[in-house]
Every structure is written in C-alpha cells, then in structure tokens.
Amino acid sequence: MKNDLYLKVKQSGDGTLSIACRLTIEKSEELKAILIKALGSVKTLLIDAKRLRGIDVSCIQLFCSAARSFQEEKKKISIKSIHSSTHLKKVLIDSGFAGDRCISEDFCKNCLWKEIRNDV
To answer: Looking at the chain, which runs of residues are DSSP E strands?
Structure first.
C-alpha cells in the first residue's frame, strides 16, 4: 500500500508518523529509515498507531531503540491510539515488553509501552 508509513514534519519541529499497515520484518528496514530520518529532523515525534494492522517483535524492538535514541538526544517520542490495537497489546504482553522490567528506571519513565505496562 502506498504511504502506509508516512512521516509528516511541521515547521515547529513536531512530527507525526502515521502507520496504516502490518509492521513485520518485511517492513523493518523502511521503518528504521523513517525513524532515523525523524530523529534527525524533529523535536517531538508522535506515532499514530490507530490504523496499525499488526506488528511483530522486530518492529517493537525498532521502536524501543528509537525511544532510547530520542531520549539520548533530549527529544520526545510518544505513541497514540496504543489501546485501540488489541494485536499490539497482545504482542507486547506475550513478548515481555509490557512486563515490569526496563532497561533502566529512567528509561522506563519514558517507555513507549508504559500505558500497557500499567494495565498488566
């Protein structure tokens, strides 16, 4: 599907990554390139997951890596509509990303999956 991953950057430096596809290993290189571009071009990134149709662990790991990179650069990254995707919640829980362990306490405060972690 054309434009199933789309990064929009406003002059203010705010960016939105809209997702309208299944994020699997086949999409991981494209997702990684967009996240790297976003890191270099935005102050804040909002990931809009309301049309996310599925995700696997490879792309969850990319989002975690991006979150760490954004935090190191003192930039903000967040995800909206996370609760509207039951598949995403299931994959996060089954793969341990929604558990009570984080890389570090400081990183955990800004974790993309904290909403789901709080529900578990």
So the answer is: 5-9, 14-19, 22-23, 44-48, 54-55, 76-80
